[in-house]
Amino acid sequence: MLSTINRDTVLCMSLSGRPGNTGTRFHNFLYRELSLNYIYKAFSTKDIIAAIGGVRALGVRGCAISMPFKEAVIPLVNEMMPSAAAIQSINTIVNDGGWLRAYNTDYGAVRSLLDSHGVARDASYAVLGSGGMAKAVASAIRDAGFSRGTIVARNEAAGKALADTVGVAWRPTIGSLRPELIVNVTPIGMEGGVEANELAFPREVVEAASTVFDVVALPIETPLVRLGRELGKKVINGGEVMTLQAVEQFVLYTGVRPEPDLVARAQDFARV
Fold it and tell me: Which of 41, 46, 70, 135 is catalytic?
């Protein structure tokens, strides 16, 4: 088990508008348990161009990309791998000697969770949001076989573009819509934000839903997740998304796939 940082230590990092400790604890736990000479650190930036330049220039091995940078980094990488190119959204950059390859591991995580939670494919759904993460979520839902959907987004241009891409309707607010699956892909409910204590969907919409899905991982128990549990709904939380996508990032960075029991321990450690 490695205990010190040295000149050979490999750096991985994350770039986010609101950095948290969950991913940092998850990755570093696995590095430690597997005796890998890696270290992971979370960062924020107001200069994404310079930050990605630093990833390339300093030999940072891997970089996780979170809101609001998932689309802004597209022109800054050398190669878009199929998972990112298909939805034009990046959440993972791998640096091979200055050549930056971009991936999206959110997409696979969402598809996997829809399967593991047994969400019926004929359910109507609404995705709240239109940014880079919303692209991954909406594309995963479409490709999983859902067809009766709506993109709810205040940004008309981005909302309509995403709706057209996945072949569903757009509307600026949820209004009278009462979908069976509701998915929050906005910062509403995120710790540290001005809307940290707000519900992403009105209570009456949550009451009418059968499945509540919130991609916000900090905190895991967002107001939406908490209300969904109180009402006895099927709930999928952002911590589950974080774990699944982070495992795939870990494999891309290190070439090592941890055993499921070790992943479970890392997940528990990250949530403390």
Answer: 70
